[in-house]
Amino acid sequence: MLIATINPNPTRLAVCLEKEFDGAYGPAWHCITGKSFGSFVTHPNDGFVYFSVDNIRFLLFKMEVRPLIKPKPPRLLKLTINE
C-alpha cells in the first residue's frame, strides 16, 4: 500500500515505517530509504531489517533506549569565617 504511488517519496515512507515499527515493536526505530546508500549502524540482535521493493531499498534498525538520569547537583558547603 505504501509503494502504490508512481513516484513514492522516500522520506515519507521512512517516517511511516518508523511509526509502524515503533508501535509494533517498541520505540527507537530508525529508517533509511533510497536507491543506493551505505550504512554502519549499531543495533541489538533482533533490531535490524533490510529489504527492497522495486528499486527502493529500506533499512530499519532499532537503537537501545536507556532512561535519562539527571545527576544531582553537588551539595553546597557551609563556610564559616573566623574574625
From TrEMBL:
<keyword id="KW-0963">Cytoplasm</keyword>
<keyword id="KW-0206">Cytoskeleton</keyword>
<keyword id="KW-0493">Microtubule</keyword>
<dbReference type="InterPro" id="IPR037177">
    <property type="entry name" value="DLC_sf"/>
</dbReference>
<comment type="similarity">
    <text>Belongs to the dynein light chain family.</text>
</comment>
<dbReference type="GO" id="GO:0007017">
    <property type="term" value="P:microtubule-based process"/>
</dbReference>
<keyword id="KW-0243">Dynein</keyword>
<protein>
    <recommendedName>
        <fullName>Dynein light chain</fullName>
    </recommendedName>
</protein>
<dbReference type="Pfam" id="PF01221">
    <property type="entry name" value="Dynein_light"/>
</dbReference>
<dbReference type="GO" id="GO:0045505">
    <property type="term" value="F:dynein intermediate chain binding"/>
</dbReference>
<dbReference type="GO" id="GO:0005874">
    <property type="term" value="C:microtubule"/>
</dbReference>
<dbReference type="GO" id="GO:0005868">
    <property type="term" value="C:cytoplasmic dynein complex"/>
</dbReference>
<dbReference type="InterPro" id="IPR001372">
    <property type="entry name" value="Dynein_light_chain_typ-1/2"/>
</dbReference>
<keyword id="KW-0505">Motor protein</keyword>
